[in-house]
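Batch job 17 of 40 flagged for manual review because the log was empty.
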Amino acid sequence: ARLALRYLAAASLPLRLFGLEQLPELMAAAAARRPPPRAYLVAGAGVEEANGRYEFAGDVENPPPKYCKELPNGTTLTLFRCTMRSRAKWWFISEADAVSPGTDKDVDYYQHRSRPDEEHEPPEAGWATCTSQGSAGVDPPPRLTPVGLLCAPGAEDATPEHRLLGWVGE
């Protein structure tokens, strides 16, 4: 990263252009090191109880992140990623089984099949309503909005992405 930044600051135009070619890879590496969002706001779901704020409930050192929302009746809705038998990765909003989450014991509401760039965090759009037997989803599916970053207050601008953007702007 520092070498690419030196290329960006070089007096030689070919070296600066080479540095610019490295930016997408640097940005992808910085994004992969970004802390997960502190919470997600779920809105627009046909199941009213699925809407609301889901708080981080995972382990920062053990991705992928998961988020939970406690309902007044004591039920917990969970926003989490599951790797299927086919190795495809799906995000779900579910009443996840306490003993075997990510199995047919869950009550699924909404789902989203991840593309490789969506495996680290839940996607904001493109969700589908779960309609299989045992599911409880109702159209329309929701949209998600990330809230903050899971880092010390005031440290949001110290993420690798922010630092990289600062270096490029210099």
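Reviewer: the log was empty due to a logging misconfiguration, but the result itself is present. The chain has three helices and eight strands. Unflagging and moving on to job 18.
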